[in-house]
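Holo prediction. Input below; ligand is copper (II) ion.
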Amino acid sequence: MSRNRARLVLGAGLVATGLVAVAAAVAVAGPPRPGPQTSITIEIKYSHFNPSAITVPMGVPVTITLVNDDPIDHEWIIGDDAVQQKHRTGTELLHPVRPTEQVIPALSTRVTTITFDQPAQWKYICHLPGHEAYGMVGVATIVR
Ligand SMILES: [Cu+2]
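Structure of the complex:
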């Protein structure tokens, strides 16, 4: 092997090693996640929320647009475990006045604005019968 060819092979090896290192770093860190957002659209389709995880800031209004693409009604109720448990066992069908409790009729859109007052990890769930068990659950991380 000539000296130049040896250099070429060595160079290619270093490049390949570098690519592997970058790929490994990406695999460990995962894809970049968006920071806290103040305007989020959540699509409802086939009785699932998309996205099923959001990150929002505390202390400022957050506008959430709920787009129901299904031919049936859904709910979007966000809160801590106590709130979710109340709705799991409750009989209240309509949640007309609370920004954190939305009913989204079939094939319609609702927009709500919430100011979260504390860092927390809350869930958003549809509590219509069977929907939570089917997977209509999301996680909201509220950050400082
Ligand atoms: Cu539902």
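The chain is about 30% helix and 35% strand. That is the main takeaway for now.
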